[in-house]
Specification:
This protein is of the alpha/beta class. The chain has an 8-stranded mixed β-sheet with strand order 19-20-18-21-22-16-24-25. Helix 5 packs across helix 6. It starts with a helix and ends with a helix.
Length: about 800
């Protein structure tokens, strides 16, 4: 029996006979979506990862995985593959089967032997595996109650993704065991708030947490949670305001609280309203985006957490922060579960990206004024070389803003998507305003169509902030192009953002990750499958840093001779508001006003020079490779490398091509391993077949056009073997080949199209060749003649 027959005739009946129901058996269960591959403006998904059988005791409580193999294979041949699946899915019991029995692997360590053989009639029942599972988890009644409390669901067809389930289970179990500080690290766009909502629900319903606080530092984070992922708490849920502290008794009516730390605390002692609540008021505090404040020992968040010391503190972040004075893990501990950006892209839950690196002339060479040069305000410009790090800080070039804006508009026009949601990250709020104005001029009729087509959304602009909800709403067209400094860098759920523009220096890996995260969400229904990053500052070099998608190292080091002023201005100091952080020019003044003993140093003047010309000198497109790294080699070189990895010689490729049951599978195999071949085909034209592209790129063979291959078939006299309607069908296939792809030719559905319909029905046409098998054999022979070296 083949694998499918083994599953259906032997393994499934065996499982059912052991007491498992159809509702508990998930056959060929896909646990990923399949990585998204981008070819020009089109996308396709790779294969989904799936297990042959996933056995659940109840929904979202998987106990076992079974990997099935052909009946003539060894019993345990699928075990290593099954163990990989089990580790990915956090499943304790693993089985491999060839239909004649089972090899059982117990990952809990509770069995006398880790692996043992079982007969086909001895598969464990659901209750037997569940009792083993409970024994492994522990005897605590509190823990068992938490385990047995189901997930919240208002849709039987919707369930958490596998990584969300793991994060929820591990958190609930750790808290039920009495752990007091925990950390979850999940990439932006993977549903941290949904995950938090399920954790809160199960602990609340099981009685392990009677009062819960969801703590954040931005209104948008709290408001999004209230109307989306936490709405199922109904009347038990409230958002804390400063007025609520005038009547503490009113808060007693609620059990789940959404809190903005600015509403609960302040710089003055009488502003610290949280102290009006008993220290044991909350049982659980979930800190959203915990890298931004709670990790720093002297932050206002810590005062709140230190007051409610009896509560469990769970931190959520995509980017743990580890610097000399801030450590997420020092406070919350090592992450109990991490789901990274690379994993999310590999699984197809997050969008891949392309990088367009734009180099401008004066940014590269620097600009030096001639002696006596005056700026726009008549000030003498200091004579020195102004480099990229000085731009939009000590010198402003309006022509540069114009070039940046024109390049952005040029890109969205090139992809034929003028309404692609775009975020332009600028150095300061003033820079964001200049770029906004330049984009209005560059976008022409579109900005006249609606004044919201281009907007600045910064912390100091109420009109812009009022449009933020519309910008992140997938159903709203406007605002479309948005400039910002800090406000949109984190915590903003911009699901349909297709373009991220970087025109600010970024040294912080945390900030870089957060900004990239604005584009990683997938909205297939809205055509958002990937996104582009346009980099004017060279900051995408951070993609090559091991810390981009790795574990942040804890750093506790202070150097005696460090330039304190420089250090304070290079990283985010504690307790700054968004508005203060957005204006880099005010940063040092804010720090000094908060009690620093630094001397006030006069800041150099800012020069504006409208007459300095700017030009693009180079553009470089980088692609995200299958290993999660940006490819810097040419597309042709990378494709050649992929081809030779699969087929080192021309002979090996040609042999595989001629012997394949379906030649398109050969193309797909090369395609899925890197940059899609269709991207290269656009450069050579559609008159060439993908076969010729592979032969040319991989083995330096001369390319033949499709019409040349058609003529070669006709000259071969192969068609003379056929007459009547059979000959007409083959002539029509050759005619179609000039306009369609190889995949279309190999698909029998082509017979339902013209000109085939004029010859006969698809059933009649297949019958001309003795049935479907005979038809496919004939097409294969035709392609053998067509594809010669």
């Amino acid at each position: 029996m083949n694998e499918e027959e083994t599953r259906n005739r032997l393994i499934r009946p065996s499982i059912i006979n052991s007491g498992w129901t159809d509702q508990q058996i998930r056959e060929e269960y896909p646990y990923t979506m399949g990585r998204i591959h981008v070819s020009g403006k089109t996308t396709k998904r790779g294969e989904k990862k799936k297990v042959d059988f996933l056995l659940e005791y109840r929904p979202n409580l998987p106990l076992a995985i079974i990997e099935a193999k052909h009946s003539n294979k060894d019993l345990g041949i699928g075990m290593q593959q099954a163990l990989v699946y089990a580790e990915n899915l956090d499943v304790p019991f693993v089985f491999s089967s060839n239909g004649n029995g089972y090899l059982f692997h117990d990952r809990t360590g509770m069995s006398e032997t880790t692996e043992s053989s079982l007969g086909l009639d001895n598969f464990p029942s659901p209750e037997e595996l569940y009792q083993r599972y409970l024994k492994w988890k522990g005897e605590s009644t509190t823990l068992r109650t938490a385990i047995e409390t189901p997930f919240y669901s208002d849709d039987p067809n919707k369930s958490p993704r596998y990584f969300q389930r793991i994060a929820i289970d591990r958190s609930v179990e750790a808290i039920a065991r009495g752990e007091k500080r925990l950390l979850l690290v999940m990439a932006t766009g993977t549903g941290k708030t949904y995950t938090a909502g399920q954790i809160m629900w199960r602990l609340w319903k099981s009685g392990n947490a009677k009062r819960i606080l969801f703590l954040a530092d931005r209104n948008i984070l709290v408001d999004q949670a209230r109307v989306n992922d936490l709405k199922h708490f109904g009347n038990a849920l409230t958002k804390i305001s400063r007025q609520d502290f005038n009547d503490i008794g009113s808060l007693m009516a609620y059990e789940v609280f959404l809190g903005l730390y600015q509403a609960m605390s302040g710089k003055e002692e009488n502003d610290k309203l949280f102290k009006k609540l008993p220290k044991d008021f909350f049982d659980l505090i979930i800190v959203d985006e915990c890298h931004r404040g709670s990790a720093s020992e002297d932050s206002e968040w810590h005062e709140i957490l230190d007051h409610f010391t009896s509560a469990t503190h769970l931190g959520l972040t995509a980017t743990p922060k580890e610097t000399t004075d801030t450590s997420t893990t020092h406070y919350f501990g090592e992450s109990i579960y991490t789901y990274s950006l690379k994993q999310g892209i590999d699984d197809g839950f997050l969008a891949p990206y392309k990088v367009l690196r734009v180099l401008l002339d004066n940014d590269i060479t620097g600009w030096r004024p001639t002696p006596g040069t005056l700026d726009d305000n008549g000030n003498v410009v200091e004579e020195r070389v102004y480099e990229l790090r000085d731009i939009n800080k000590s010198v402003i070039f309006p022509q540069r803003d114009k070039i940046v804006a024109e390049k952005i508009v040029e890109y969205i026009n090139a992809i034929n998507d003028p309404y692609a949601k775009t975020i332009v990250f600028c150095r300061t709020t003033a820079h964001a305003e200049r770029v906004r104005s330049a984009l209005v001029n560059a976008s022409g009729d579109k900005s006249l169509e609606d004044t919201r087509y281009v907007m600045r959304i910064t912390g100091d602009d109420e009109e812009g902030k009022n449009q933020l909800d519309r910008f992140i709403d997938p159903e709203e067209k406007y605002p479309t192009l948005v400039t910002t400094s800090q406000l949109l860098s984190t915590g903003v759920d911009a699901q349909t953002c297709k373009l991220i523009v970087l025109d600010k220096p970024i040294e912080s890996m945390t900030e870089f990750k957060q900004i990239i995260g604005r584009g990683t969400r997938v909205r297939e229904d809205k055509g958002k499958m990937w996104f582009t990053i346009i980099d004017f500052q060279g900051v995408t070099k951070l993609f090559a840093d091991p810390g981009f998608d790795g574990v942040a190292e804890r750093v506790f080091e202070v150097k005696e001779n460090d330039n304190l002023k420089e250090e304070l201005t290079e990283k985010d100091p504690p307790d700054l508001t968004i508005e203060e952080k957005e204006d880099e020019d005010k940063l040092v003044d804010v720090i000094l006003s908060r009690g620093s003993s630094l001397d006030v140093i006069d800041r150099p003047p800012v020069f504006t020079l409208s007459g300095v010309p700017y030009a693009v000198v180079k553009e470089q497109v980088q692609y995200l490779g299958p290993d999660g790294k940006l490819l810097t080699q040419s597309l042709t070189d990378f494709t050649r490398k992929n081809i030779l990895t699969h087929y080192p010689t021309l002979e090996s490729f040609f042999t595989a091509w001629q012997s394949a049951d379906r030649r398109q599978a050969i193309i797909d195999q090369i395609d899925v391993s890197g940059i899609p071949l269709e991207e290269l085909q656009k450069q050579v034209g559609t008159e060439f077949d993908l076969f010729d592209l592979v032969m040319h790129v991989g083995y330096d063979k001369k390319m033949m056009k499709k019409n040349e291959r058609i003529e070669a078939v006709r000259r071969s006299n192969y068609l003379d073997k056929y007459s009547g309607k059979a000959r007409e069908v083959l002539e029509a296939l050759l005619q179609k080949y000039a306009d369609v792809t190889l995949k279309d030719i190999e698909n029998v559905r082509i017979l339902t199209l013209e000109p085939f319909r004029s010859i006969g029905t698809d059933y009649e046409l297949v019958s001309l060749f003795g049935g479907k098998e005979g038809y496919f054999k004939t097409v294969d022979e035709l392609l053998d003649v067509m594809y010669t070296k």
